[in-house]
Amino acid sequence: MNSDSQLQKKYSAIPSTLWPYYGDLRIKRPDHPIVKAIQSQGEDKTWQGINSLFEITSQNTGLPSERLLQDLGFDRSNLDDNHLQSIFAVIRTVNLLVPIGFTNLRPLPPNKSRRESDLLGEFNQTMFAIEVFRSNEVAYRFPNHNSPTQNLQNYVATRYKEKRSQLDASMNAHKCSKALLVVVMDSQPARALVSGDEWRVVAEKTFEMMGKPDNTHLLVFTGMADINGQDEHILYPPLG
Which residues pair with 120 in a beta bridge? Predict the structure, then answer.
């Protein structure tokens, strides 16, 4: 195993604050997803992937990786499974929105006086408030499931209602005309089994359950490649 100093030199795009954080995870949270990923797929593959993630996102936002992590609310003391994974979900979102056509993407740092959305960005000179949440890999959710707690559309619609106030606060504070709710779909088996056409039906049904809100769009993506080798995603209604 390489030392942290060797890893930091080799993977220079990774923020320096992540190395002591990983050291804490190894000792205090050996069951953490990142620790387990390194054990299963190897150190080099895992860190290379994370390094590329920060490198590309820094290019897409114009922010150094240290600043990027800070503005996304990284907390060195938070060793919860979902803390770093949620930050990675926002970073992955940035890198998907750029090829879709979004520009001037930047994270909104945590605000002590109000909760805000995760990102701001522009599409065709229209400012968007962008909220990201992740359906994690240990949660069983599937489209049209009979159980409300495991029904994917119901889950997304419920989370939207929880997040709406944050979107509204950011839209008002930053003069945004539109909102975008992003669902990073890491839950199995839906992530692997639902196809591109089925995701479109899921997105339309979910948007209906959200109440078809004005000036709001829904983006669902899995991080998997579609048949054309592109990131699998569906954006509804279309941006136009």
Answer: 106, 129
